[in-house]
Amino acid sequence: MGICASSQYTGQGGIALKWPSTVKIIHLDGTLQELKHSIKAEQILSQNLGCFLCSSESMYINSHIPFIPQNEELKLGQIYFLMPLSKSHQTLSLQDLCTLAIKAHAALTHSEPSTTRTSKLSNNFCTTPAGVNIVGLSSTLR
Question: Source organism's superkingdom (predicted)?
Fold first, then answer.
């Protein structure tokens, strides 16, 4: 999918904000969890039964969602998605990847570059990075 996040984010008004390098995990409900240190995938998965982790860097159209192995260390500066196990053999469509990109953008946009560690995503409305408003976007990944 290639949705990578820079450690620098331009906020409203064009002001550059510096985010500390963290492990970013986007939960099923759009909650953003940030960790200041790397952690093994199994530590996240043990708290989220029925889910698997995937990296935003290894998701592509018309391919299966790649699992992060439980013993793998999650890397600082990377974005990970918690996905339901029921989606583990699903082929990703362009719409699915767009939905995940919008979910990540909304979670990251609503997160403050401070000590705040969670941000709730509204499923009804969000603004894409290109400035296109999408209302009621549906996907098989919800």
Answer: Eukaryota
